[in-house]
User: Fold this.
Amino acid sequence: MPTDLRQLLEDSSIVGAATLVRAEKLARLSGLSLGKSLISLDSISLNELEAALEARHMIDDGLISHDCACRAMQTVRRRGWNLTDSLMAIDAEAFTARRSRLGELFLDAGIVDDRQLEICLNSATFVGYPLGKTLTIFDTVDEALITKSLDWQKQLRLGELDRKETLNRIRELHQSKTRIDRSGAKLEQLLEAAELSQVTEPSTRKDGDVRSIDSLTRLHSLDRKTIIASVKLISLVQEGLISMKEAAKLLKYIDKYTDGSAQESPDNSLLDFLRQTGLLDAKRCRQLFDEMEETELKDPARLTEALLSRYREDTELIKSATVLYQLLQTQKLNREEALLTFGFLKFGLARS
Assistant:
């Protein structure tokens, strides 16, 4: 059974039970992940969350014990270090290799470049997926390379392989696969179904392997939030939880309403935010403008009260939107994160 993040954080004394209850309540109301909810409550830092997620994977891989992970996490909290340095500080025998994260190995092996890795890491962090899964969704590598690379990563961390040999093995296996299996639901299919893809020639590596991220980032009107949303949606399609048609519908919604036109400013009103989410369409806006004074429209409490009384069928969405707006106001979320999260909530796809 996979290691429970909540249990790891509690056993490490990073957060207490009462804090976890508050974070889980925020997660239910906002649609945010537990980790992002804890960050929003100032209970943990991004560094601590990343360390906890990495420690969880290492426990599951049998590299370190739960007790070792807890001690390392306490060092992460106390000194502000990353997990690697914290494990070395407590003399964890199973962790002696620096730059042994999967992304670092792929970067140094020439599988991805800095920009591609940044896109993948941003996407993986937002949707809560391991980097390897995100890379396969982008068609950058296939699952066989991920599986073997994780095995070599484990051997590297256990001291059974040196770093040079690990990189050589990853590089050679990748180069032996001149074409990636694209038989499953992939990003290009989703973009085409959502009518967001435009014809462009993908860049090609010398070994003939197509780098899909290069192609995607050059597509007209395709921005970071669309890439991030696509990663989540393609995974849900692959797992059989939604159809490609449903995924395309949500992606078109995100592209329409989260166009990034509003400034990243805490001065933006709740009314503007709700219009961006699509919760307030033109018809509802006209009704509110006819029935409410301008001062009432600018008052978040009065506006929320009016919305809840008028549009009871959207009660849960209205409550969630106001919570996300509060997190935006306090700069716990940026506008892109808030709008994407609302989009998933609207379509019943809140992230776990």
